[in-house]
Amino acid sequence: MKAWGSLIALAGLSLLLSGCWSKMELTERAFVLAIAIDKGKEETLEVTAQIYRPVSQFGAPSAQATAKSFVNVTLDGTSVSTIIRNTKTVSGRHSQFSHIQILLISEEIARERLSSILDFFYRDPEIRLGTPIMIARGKARDYLTGKSMIENTLGSQVFKQLEFSSNLAGRAVNTTILDLAFRLKSESASAMLPIIMHDRQFRQDLVQGIALAKPDRMVGRIAPDKAAYLLLMANEYKHGVLEVPCDRESAGKMDAIEILKARSKVTPVLKGDALSARVDVKIDASIGELVCTTIRDTADEARYAERVERYFKEQLENVLDTLQKQKVDVLGIGHKIYLRHPSRWKKLKPEWPERYARMPIEVSVKVDLVNSKMMNPGPFSRIGED
Amino acid sequence: MNNETTHIITNPPISANPEENISRLKDIFKQCADIAYERIAAGPDMCCSAWIVYCESLADQQSASDILSVLQKMEMRRRGNGDPLTTQAIREWFDFQGIIDRSYFIHDTMESVVRMVLQGHVVFFMEQWDHAVSFDGLKLETRGVEEPSAERAAIGPREGTVENLSLNIGMLRMRLQTPDFKIVKIPNTGRRTGKEVVYGYLDGVVPPAVLQEFERRIVKVKDHELVDTTMIEKLIQDSTWSPFPQCRYTERTDAATLALLEGKIIVMSQGSGVVLICPSVLVEFLQSIEDYYHRRAFTFLIRLLRIAAFLISLFLPSIYVALTTFHSELIPTVLLLAITNTREGIPFPAVVEVIIMEFFFELLREAGIRLPQAVGSAVSIVGALIIGQAAIDSGIASPMMIVVVSLTGIASFSIPQYNFAIAMRLLKVPFILFAASLGGFGLMIGILLLLLHLCSLRSLGQAYFDPVGPFRPRRFGMLFKPWDLRKAGQDAA
Fold this sequence. Notes:
The structure holds 2 protein chains of 2 kinds.
Chain A lengths: L1 H16 L11 E11 L5 E8 L8 H6 L3 E8 L2 H12 L2 E3 L5 E5 H6 L2 H9 L9 E4 L17 H16 L7 H9 L5 E9 L4 E10 L4 E5 L1 H10 L6 E6 L8 E18 L2 E16 L8 H29 L6 H8 L1 H7 L3 H7 L2 E11 L15
Parallel strand pairs in A: 1-4, 1-5, 5-6, 6-7, 12-13
Antiparallel strand pairs in A: 1-2, 2-3, 7-8, 8-9, 10-11, 11-12
Helix pairs in contact in A: 8-9, 10-11
Chain B lengths: L17 H11 L6 E8 L5 E8 L5 H21 L5 H10 L7 E4 L2 H9 L2 E6 L5 E5 L28 H11 L5 E9 L5 E8 L5 H11 L14 H4 L11 E3 L2 H9 L3 E5 L5 E4 L17 H30 L7 H11 L6 H21 L2 H21 L5 H15 L4 H39 L1 E2 L2 E2 L13 H4 L13
Antiparallel strand pairs in B: 1-2, 2-4, 3-5, 4-5, 6-7, 7-9, 8-10, 9-10, 11-12
């Protein structure tokens, strides 16, 4: 009995003497919801952390309504980790990075250096590898200030926009910091990042366009209207609507086609010393909007599909051309060669960027119109009537 | 039967002189105002005297007058024959000519006479005969058979047990019309309470090893003063210190019948409407009699719900404490932001908050149980105001904590067996402390200790955590569906 008593007492003590480990109340933590990294003066960095500001249940209701639900802490310094550690001196609470919704990096700094500012985010245990990363045109901090449209904080607002843009609109790509690491560490060493930009005319922020990145820095951009074609080739296109220009008679007008499903396959071909590649894109689509095309039967439909294919192929080649000129292999052709012929890749690797820029890449597009929306020739038209 | 010395004189023989017997009885029942002694003059010329002794508060007057008429008839016969009165003659007379609707007992010691009087028998002594005859004249007011308030069911019989043992046995016998339904009586348990205890089982269905173990333990009941059947649990349970009950209780006759069909042993006692069912294992505490009456799919869902309720009532407060103080990264962002909003401005750490609110809740529950119904509703209004509104407004507790605590409470109410729900109430406190000191890691330690305990616990030799404890995937069905009664008894072999 005595032995049991002392055993229980010791076990109880071991619970208490542990100092309660990493215990910290919610009210002692500050939850960082977004981080923006800008270029500071000269060589310094300017890091903005958006911290959720809990709205207390107590107090006058009028104060609650007007209170903003987030605060931004901006500090500058030379390394990301010291700046972030110093945010506590401003907020007075322990910054917790587990719930970061978005990591914004201004284009300005991304074009200078990328890997050196991102290192912290791979080492810190609190930051999730699933955190999406985004390139901001202009000052990254500006996207975190102001009022959010619908969501509680601007961080989650931007995150939601990105999700929509990549999943349903096909205008951006959702890249997490883990994806980024995979892409940049692969043999192709190139990655795609979504871009957020400010629309001056309508005063709103848009997530669209794709930034092309190499491990050390960002090297180029694909415009929002071309982004879809890059995504189609990279097998990242989920859903969206694409426009197909009309013939000469009704120039300036567009038919729209809804992409239901798109698959692509990139096949590098290595014959002797000759290097080439094939990109096959297969698209299941339905007619979204017909402005200048009339479809009465399956022959018309096939003709229309062919026109779409032709136009798409043109666009895809156009985007490929840009990629090759900028020497960014975001389609992962180099990595595919490495997987198939590892020994030959060793010899090929030093001269890969040049070889990539020169190699012929053949594009083929197959469009299946799986749902022609009742085959009506045009709006308000009757069957049998022209 | 009872070898211990009591104030009752040890086995004195009954004298042939009734006056002597009566004076001795009067000595034994000193200061017992409810014992009635009646002298009857019988026979020709009223020459012979007989005495009737009974307990007024137990036996009805009708029994006493019955005896009077019997006595008169007997006197007539005796006069006609002229034979001396022998035990044999009395027995014969009662067997063949006496009052046929009543069984009689013949006693030759004063001790048994005393006991019979206290059990409501009417005893009479006659001249020239050193024995006494008694009839069962017990007449107790019994509550009507009604639906037990603690075990209401939407469908199914509305019959519940009452405080009358023979009536209860009768209700069970009506439902189990087979000689396999055995009823074993243990009369006169305890020195002073003298309660009659009965246990029953279905022969061929109950596992013999369990029955043997049970009978070995129930013998101890002899020496215990019992007030209620529930006190028997302490004699037959395996582990005294376990928070988990190892016996179930019911007041429904259909539930008791089902338990018998499942191979359980039931225990009842005089003066208590509670039927004790043993051995009981953990999954049975999550079962309700209604599971047998509803459709299978519904039963399955309800079982899932109860398993969830079991886990919630045990772990929810501790999980909340662990997540909010140690592992906030595990909470989805939007929920986390909602929780931080509610926690902002609360002066206490989460663990203190949860302990305060659990304390409030248990206090209200305890207050509500004891009070009469009219006052009880007042308590619940005050409780709802204090807990629901004032605690939040004054910044003692966060709304999220109220949700956690009340959900825990409601989950424990939805466990069908009350004594099992008590175990949950008891166990959640150490889990909260584990979670508060080491977070999820501490919770894990607690859960491991709990699993170790559950796996080693036995109920009358049956594994308590079956089919999870000894891992038997084939028997997992018993978690989600009622027993297949056609298979009853197959396990017994």
